[in-house]
Amino acid sequence: MEKIFWSDYTTNEIKNIISEEDPLVIITVGATEQHGTHLPLNTDTDLGFNIAQRIAKNSPVKTLILPPVWAGFSPHHMDFSGTITLKQKTLFNVVYDIIESIIQHGISKIIILNSHGGNMSLLKTVVDEVGINHNISPILVTYWHLISSQINAIRKSEMGGMGHACELETSLKMVFSPQDVQEDLMEDVMIPENEFFSVDMFAKNKIGIYQPFKNWSESGQIGAPTLASVETGEKILENIIEQFTELIKLEWVDEDVNEKNN
Amino acid sequence: MEKIFWSDYTTNEIKNIISEEDPLVIITVGATEQHGTHLPLNTDTDLGFNIAQRIAKNSPVKTLILPPVWAGFSPHHMDFSGTITLKQKTLFNVVYDIIESIIQHGISKIIILNSHGGNMSLLKTVVDEVGINHNISPILVTYWHLISSQINAIRKSEMGGMGHACELETSLKMVFSPQDVQEDLMEDVMIPENEFFSVDMFAKNKIGIYQPFKNWSESGQIGAPTLASVETGEKILENIIEQFTELIKLEWVDEDVNEKNN
Amino acid sequence: MEKIFWSDYTTNEIKNIISEEDPLVIITVGATEQHGTHLPLNTDTDLGFNIAQRIAKNSPVKTLILPPVWAGFSPHHMDFSGTITLKQKTLFNVVYDIIESIIQHGISKIIILNSHGGNMSLLKTVVDEVGINHNISPILVTYWHLISSQINAIRKSEMGGMGHACELETSLKMVFSPQDVQEDLMEDVMIPENEFFSVDMFAKNKIGIYQPFKNWSESGQIGAPTLASVETGEKILENIIEQFTELIKLEWVDEDVNEKNN
Amino acid sequence: MEKIFWSDYTTNEIKNIISEEDPLVIITVGATEQHGTHLPLNTDTDLGFNIAQRIAKNSPVKTLILPPVWAGFSPHHMDFSGTITLKQKTLFNVVYDIIESIIQHGISKIIILNSHGGNMSLLKTVVDEVGINHNISPILVTYWHLISSQINAIRKSEMGGMGHACELETSLKMVFSPQDVQEDLMEDVMIPENEFFSVDMFAKNKIGIYQPFKNWSESGQIGAPTLASVETGEKILENIIEQFTELIKLEWVDEDVNEKNN
Amino acid sequence: MEKIFWSDYTTNEIKNIISEEDPLVIITVGATEQHGTHLPLNTDTDLGFNIAQRIAKNSPVKTLILPPVWAGFSPHHMDFSGTITLKQKTLFNVVYDIIESIIQHGISKIIILNSHGGNMSLLKTVVDEVGINHNISPILVTYWHLISSQINAIRKSEMGGMGHACELETSLKMVFSPQDVQEDLMEDVMIPENEFFSVDMFAKNKIGIYQPFKNWSESGQIGAPTLASVETGEKILENIIEQFTELIKLEWVDEDVNEKNN
Amino acid sequence: MEKIFWSDYTTNEIKNIISEEDPLVIITVGATEQHGTHLPLNTDTDLGFNIAQRIAKNSPVKTLILPPVWAGFSPHHMDFSGTITLKQKTLFNVVYDIIESIIQHGISKIIILNSHGGNMSLLKTVVDEVGINHNISPILVTYWHLISSQINAIRKSEMGGMGHACELETSLKMVFSPQDVQEDLMEDVMIPENEFFSVDMFAKNKIGIYQPFKNWSESGQIGAPTLASVETGEKILENIIEQFTELIKLEWVDEDVNEKNN
Question: CATH code for D6-261?
């Protein structure tokens, strides 16, 4: 099978791939931060990177994956040991410089696959800056946003159950890295929502706030990990991959067709 | 009637208000940018600032308004004459420094009232930085987000009709500044949506991209300004104010009650 | 009458004005800071913005006014409640970005009308940076500098009477915003000068220093507001407008004539 | 066997390890850049990260490894496709922020294991900044520096043979990732040295210069990969690990003994 | 005689001087830039540094001199070969860091002696930043400002004759470094003034602008060097020193007396 | 004799020299920092600047010297009074801006002559940035590195004797500025080395660390100043000049010959 990792190629090989196949490049941006009592610090990075590999294998266009940006914007988790955080400016520049490097080599199809909530706004500001300076727009996808229409049919938890180290993340970990899930330590922490704000990943929040995680949850997790299962993880993953495949088709396959027809 | 503008007070007056009434302060952040063929460059700033005044007059807590931050992040509108844009770093620092100044004078209740889509992500990064450094979270509200549950009952346009210089903004302008609306120049520009992205203000977009506005619309507007009306504007405004009032009560009135009860 | 505010125009209107009339654009930079016991925080911004409007109405060339930059460099006033200050870098970037935006739309006649002493040096560094990068020099005018030859015939106070919230500013406020002047709270604070430095706005200071305002004056004002009057304000204003008109003629009307003659 | 990767632990586990074992943390900093005709872009990162794992397994003190910083300072390789480079400021901040995060969690024993020549000076400036601000000095080790006394007894190539994608790197790759070595594409590129400067990794250069790699070598590699072998790789590795073990003992084991004796 | 240069002392000596004599420290900031046809690039730096030495020898308080900051802000001279310019940010930081270093060693009496017009505004922003962060105000003196009341009795040239490489600078050079003055190359360049702006060093300019020097003068100088003389130079110098002595007495001798009396 | 200092020329003279002789320019970067009990703060700057003058007088190509950058990166010496330090960013920008200025005037032969150990890594990052942006590589030389092959035949001290204010620096000072050496205060401070690190200037250190100087030496010096002598100083100097001459020949004379031959 073909190699999907950018860095596994030699310079000559990558040069050929770019000129012949005009590949899509996925940059995953995760975090190294506390994930409650039962999941390891690698959770966000691990999930994003594994999802990217599944996408690459199913992608309708040649797809390459960069190594993961494994440190994100996590100051709100710094009360919890092990968390590593980059300053906003630092994370901005890392992702920006990486994208600028690949653009310089001729890449124009770029997905930033984000797997950490705390990175969302900042990564959008990176997309904007790339757009201003390079006339290319990376597509920013926080992976769970892609399945917002599907999730209610899948989840077992009610609103509040998918927050952090929650039903969703634990289920996906069970699929990708079951050895990382300490099931005996799983504990649910449900935070009541209000009309303007909920900690649930699928909430349609009307306001933006900053909150140290310790204020939400002493143990670090938010949601219902005890409702997680491999089956749920697999359904979620399947839907994510489907959506990504459709997105890639919409953006780059149909477009190519359209262009050829003109 | 009492003065609602921060700057209209003397230093001694403001000192007394802060120590006796612990006021809420609203910072409006808008833009000076093209608003299609029929609305002036002031549109975003004007709407945000007028809404803030209505909020202040209806607020359950003492509320003061700062002068508007009238230049936002608008590089995607720079193809259109008259647009003024700040670099991301500049806008970040302006809003950050203003907030830091009022925090230094003892203010802890802060709403950032945003009225320009392009500012959203950047302003969230400001909220985060304030939160990290000051243990206070300003509440970021992009005003139309507050009425996402109500809008479908109000709007005449279908999805795509509320984008930029659209049914919503034109209707609100008709309420606040009818002299600014050149009805004879109104023209609808409808952009088809797809499953991942729509230009409509109320779309639940699953991806983030950058797009120069010229690529969407030659004339600058997006949506259906011809469906705008004073009546629609008044309904929208009424709902916005109701929601803001509720938010303020939830955040600061009930909290005070709770604290007193403890 | 024609609209004098940049932002009140649509993008198409402003485009036409620029290409047909090559307008002068005035950016007023003020402050939001304590102005003693009897004047509000808005004083500097209000005065600069009102002066700009008078200039525009009397200008020999088409003149447009941007919204005011209402936060300046005021750390020396932060001991007084209500003062809002931008860091030097922030103020630099705000004014720089605004100017760069209008230059991009074709503006080459630019006046920075400053109404706050604390902004003077910093704004000169902005002028320099614009000059280096754009081959256009904005003209920086701190408004009272323009009437240095006339003021002695107008002022009632001796040296030291025109400092901050003083005879000059109070008189001008009486003209533009009489409701803002709390005459019963007016109190003179006279600081002795020496041969190298005086706090008077018209002093020819030989040295540059930094001093927190509290060290000069417990109450915030410096000078003789009790000598202020509407008549004085009107004379001052008349002279300011005359000087600005002459400056504009010298810079842009005569120049055009000269160029036409070549 | 015990887990050696920082991120594989939960927050509670890492907290316990830190308080009970005061572990050494290794941060590897590599690069993603061209490595000639026969080695992949991952070479530097892969070598550093594999060496770190061997160190951890042999370390006389509890040792944890962070995920690799896989993008380095490589502008001189940007003529070669696939190379990714961070700006100096960006790389500085990434490494600095990571170190500051772990210091905040109580780590004081830190090794920065560098595997890319282009990073050396910059990483020393990071060490300095950490030292100034935190009273802790990370130890910066560019791995091949550790075996400068041993290398002559091991290498087959003469001076110039160990530069980039060379005898040394190819031999180590043969040990760690033989599948990455395309032996049929190996080709030697020998650059003559002078008395002040040589491209050899073990040269004692008397001057510092900047040179785009293309100027040295059209194909990207410098040195004698054809002299590489698994045996050489194993000898090199053995010596590296020995030296690291000794260094760790000297810095942290003997020191602990000394402190206990006081 | 006692050494007047900070750097000529050992660390122990300087420590004693600081604790026993609380010395005044002078930082001269000049430029390396074209000075017309007859004066060398060193002119500004040389003049400022020589003046500082005379001050130190006449000073009523123990006075030490730092080495000169010999590169200033001179982009407007870059059309002329040999000019060296620092970016504004760079010059700001150099002077700021130097001042912060000596403050850390206990110095509180500081004069920034500026000898280049282009540095004036920027150095005032440094004074402000030091004042904000350290509660100490350096005193900024552009040396010719000190003799604005005396100059008319001394100068031979009319307004416009003292600009750059002019009557004043040439006369001072004749006193300090006669070998640097190529009298046969002296040539006057007189620029007409207007009511708002003159290039003369003693003009009371009402506006601030940026102008590349080439636009003023093809040859680089502005003013009347042919009217320069040693006698004029000596009179100017005498007055400068008198004024500095008085300033030092006013700031630090009388103050000490005052404090002792309290 | 011809003038060797850049700043002693007029703009026209320097323009001619550049176009006719394509000169080498030397920038010396030193420090103002404690040099133990017997040497003044000026030591590093003084040595570098004197060496540069000797080089210029012996140089096979036309050579000009800029004024010294007399403040370096010395935070590790700030415990000792009198030390002046620039932040890393500041020193970077100063040297960068100076080099950019002379490149703009047509200079392409540049030596950065460093005389302070603390500046080494940072100056290499400057060389890199110049190389990236200007396609010109300054040559960075820390002067003692040039004589690493010769030193053992000259030095009287064993390893550890040449560190800071040591046998080498004291001997050179005895040659250049004997009045600066307080021989009665000389005292040796020998720090034991280990296999990875030694404080000796000629050590081939295998690791990089940060250490406040106070931790090494209470009195500030490291090494054996009591073994210094004028004779040693002269031998060292002679070797340095020889090496520099050879380097210049290699880089710019032979190259010119080569180019001419093609």
Answer: 3.40.50.10310
